[in-house]
Amino acid sequence: MEHGTRNIKLASRHSYGLAAEREGRLVGVLHAAEWPHCQMTLGEKLKSAPVMMRTIGRNMPRALKIMSSRAKHEPREPHWHVGPIAVHPDAQGHGVGTALLRAVLETIDEQRAAAFLQADVDRNAVLYQRFGFEIVSQETILGIDTRFMWRAAR
After folding, report:
1. Of the chain's two ends, which shows fewer C-beta atoms within 10 Å, N or C?
2. How far apart are the first and last CA of the chain?
3. CA distance 85 to 55
4. Got the DSSP string for the chain?
5. pLDDT tens, 41-63?
6. Strand 134-141 with 144-151, pairing
7. Coil vs helix vs strand at 2
8. Backbone torsions φ then ψ of 140, nearest 5 degrees
9. Span 82-130, pLDDT tens digits
10. pTM metric for this prediction
């Protein structure tokens, strides 16, 4: 999955990525992309399809359903789409996600831009609310309660 994410998300010239390291070990990553480049174009989807197939195999229809459902909630106005944010289980609860989010939001705030993200884990939604994100819509996608969150420009 790490290989697939790196190829799909970080290969885009519009991607902004942050990594957190502890004792020489990768413990967290964050991806962000500026609108209108936050959703893959048809060409980018086709180009990434072989990597996605190798990475997620028979779960491809499920992944496509999740991606298309989430894309419908993407705001149609200038913003930064933040996510995914991932922290290694051993590093969770130690401020790694907070540090990654704070760093990207500083950059976004310097541009006086808005931010958008999705949360499907309760504790993550609480973290995002501490940073000023508000839930603007919600949808259960394949049994997962997904909150779509917006943070106005600062």
Report:
1. N
2. 34
3. 19
4. -HHHHHHHHTTSTTEEEEEEEETTEEEEEEEEEETTTTS--HHHHHHHHHHHHHHHGGGHHHHHHHHHHHHTTS-SSS-EEEEEEEE-GGGTTTTHHHHHHHHHHHHHHHTT--EEEEE-SHHHHHHHHHTT-EEEEEEEETTEEEEEEEE---
5. 777 777 777 877 787 788 877 77
6. antiparallel
7. helix
8. -90, 115
9. 999 999 999 999 999 999 999 999 999 999 999 999 999 999 999 999 9
10. 0.82
Q: Would you say 136 and 152 are in contact if contact means Cβ atoms under 8 Å apart?
A: no
pLDDT recorded at residue 11: 55
Task: Return the structure tokens found at 67.
Answer: 């991606």
Residue 103: CB atoms within 10 A of its CB come to 13
CA separation for the pair 13, 38 (Å, rounded): 11
Tokens (6 digits) for 68: 């298309």
What whole-number distance in Å separates Cα of residue 100 and Cα of residue 113?
A: 17
